Amino acid sequence: MIHFNNVSKRFDREGKSFWAAKNINLDIQEGEFITVIGPSGCGKSTVLNMCAGLMKPNGGEIYYRGKQVEKINTRVGYMTQKDNLLPWRTVIGNVEVGLEIKGLGAKEREKESSKFIEMVGLKGFEKHYPQELSGGMRKRVSLAKMLAYDPETLLMDEPFGALDAQLRLILQAKLMEIWKETKKTIIFVTHDLEEAITLGDRVAVFSKRPGTIKLIQDVNLPRPRDTFNIRFTDEFSKVHTTLWDALKEEFIEEVIGV
Ligand SMILES: Nc1ncnc2c1ncn2[C@@H]1O[C@H](COP(=O)(O)OP(=O)(O)OP(=O)(O)O)[C@@H](O)[C@H]1O
Ligand SMILES: [Mg+2]
Does the C-beta of 35 come closer than 6 Å to ligand 1? Predict the structure, then answer.
């Protein structure tokens, strides 16, 4: 479904250039839930930006359903790391954006939007403006907005990062339920290794900048997964140890510079 073929991205700044991502090779199957983890600044968001067609690689190509991504990829929904809610629209007005583009009538838009606003726990906040919400609430509006648009592929960049642990577990469970029902393809970036294992069919570990894929680990935990209890199973700890061994090397070098 999505094929990264030796994808690299360079940024130029004040006469200097550096590679944010280097030689990314990755094949993602239709209906797969892949999670991505790696140190801050290693190019994870950059890779999603390229997949959404917002940036072009400086080397290699990305193919989506066999077609090279060269402009905005309208088949994906992108929940960016920093929310991009429209400040002049209310919560429901923001969630309705994608439905307007699809040409739905007012009644149907309201019905669909309300369903997803309720799902993310924001019933009662429909008429609030983004600046009246907390960081975690804004993230949830972005999630509702993407789900209401109903794209076949979801690109999610640390979607649950600003949420408390309890709400995070609830929304993880919701997302897995939606994924199972709708058979979407999901690329999910997170800083939380437990979250990466709980959700993913595979976990891709990125090295520090310039980001390359260091390891891709299958997660053979049965589904449906219980987002709270799955972490206490033996298989979970086995996968956790393997991934943490790969990941910690990147962080040790990042922090103490060896
Ligand atoms: N538009 C841009 N112009 C210049 N440099 C950029 C741009 N976007 C990203 N970068 C740089 O590319 C590198 C990778 O950034 P990116 O946002 O992809 O990292 P990340 O892995 O998503 O990090 P984090 O986990 O902190 O979100 C960083 O050094 C960043 O400063
Ligand atoms: Mg990022």
Answer: no
The CA distance from 182 to 191, in Å, is: 26
Q: Is the C-beta atom of 20 inside 6 A of ligand 1? A: yes
In this predicted model, what pLDDT tens digit does every residue of 123-166 receive, in sequence order?
A: 999 999 999 999 999 999 999 999 999 999 999 999 998 899 99
Q: Specify the pTM.
A: 0.95
Distances (CA, A) of 53 to 71, 76, 237: 5, 10, 36
The bound ligand whose nearest atom lies closest to the alpha carbon of 192 is: 1
For the chain, counts of helices (H) and of strands (E): 8, 10
Gyration radius of the chain's alpha carbons? 19
**CA 78/CA 1 separation, integer angstroms:** 16
| Contact call for residues 76 and 155 (beta carbons, < 8 A) | yes
Structure tokens that stand for 205 in this block: 């570990």
